[in-house]
Amino acid sequence: MELSDHYIATFIHERSELLLEMERYAEEHHVPIMQLAGIEALAQLLRIQNPATILEIGTAIGYSAMRMAEALPNVHITTIERDTARVEKARDFIGRSDVAAQIRVIEGDALEVDNADLLPQYDAVFIDAAKGQYQKFFEKYSPLVPSGGILYIDNMYMHGLSDLDIKEVPRRKRTMIRNLKTFSDWILSHEEYTSAFFPIGDGILICLKR
């Protein structure tokens, strides 16, 4: 039996007016941000892990970075976004928040950013950017995660598309879904990681580095 949206909503915490404004902006301008159930779960998992540093791939308008910073008052977050308009909006929203000092926004393609511009190590990496590039993101940034660190990957379910036969997926999204499935198979057999899929929000994959 699937959980009802009403029941799930009873576990969603109240958000600040700024976060509500960001949610409205995202909906009006078709900016993808994490589903509420997903971000609540991610925030709780991060509280349990309690990382000192997080690297986020895919800032969008800064919503998830702010939610993570609010959950972890002492964390330092580096977040990367290639869309200039979204970078500007993210910096505006973050600048108006109480967690601005915890978040550094880097503008650039995450696959091209020089790792020398980053910290030498991150306790956690959160990947929420181009879904068809997840394996490339993982390969580029997982070396920055120490043993015992965790990589969190959002949108693994892709609104149900990942569960379909590739012939049933809309043609324009087939390459992305094919790459996502290839990544899933690759990481689940990876000797350096213990990985588990959590059917929360749009599906979160959690990879613990051994």
UniProtKB/TrEMBL annotation:
Organism superkingdom: Bacteria
Annotated binding of Mg(2+), by residue: 128, 154-155
MF (Gene Ontology): magnesium ion binding; O-methyltransferase activity; S-adenosylmethionine-dependent methyltransferase activity; tRNA (uridine) methyltransferase activity
InterPro entries per the UniProt record, alphabetical: Cation-dep_OMT, SAM-dependent_MTases_sf, SAM_O-MeTrfase, TrmR_methyltr
GO biological process: tRNA methylation
Alphabetical list of PROSITE patterns matching this protein: SAM_OMT_I
Uppermost EC category: transferase
Record's keyword annotation contains Metal-binding: yes
Pfam families, sorted: Methyltransf_3
EC annotation from Swiss-Prot or TrEMBL: 2.1.1.-
Keywords on record: Magnesium, Metal-binding, Methyltransferase, S-adenosyl-L-methionine, Transferase, tRNA processing
Family as reported in the entry's similarity comment: Belongs to the class I-like SAM-binding methyltransferase superfamily. Cation-dependent O-methyltransferase family.
Complex formation: Homodimer.
Protein name: tRNA 5-hydroxyuridine methyltransferase
Lineage, highest ranks first: Bacteria, Bacillati, Bacillota, Bacilli, Bacillales
Gene: trmR
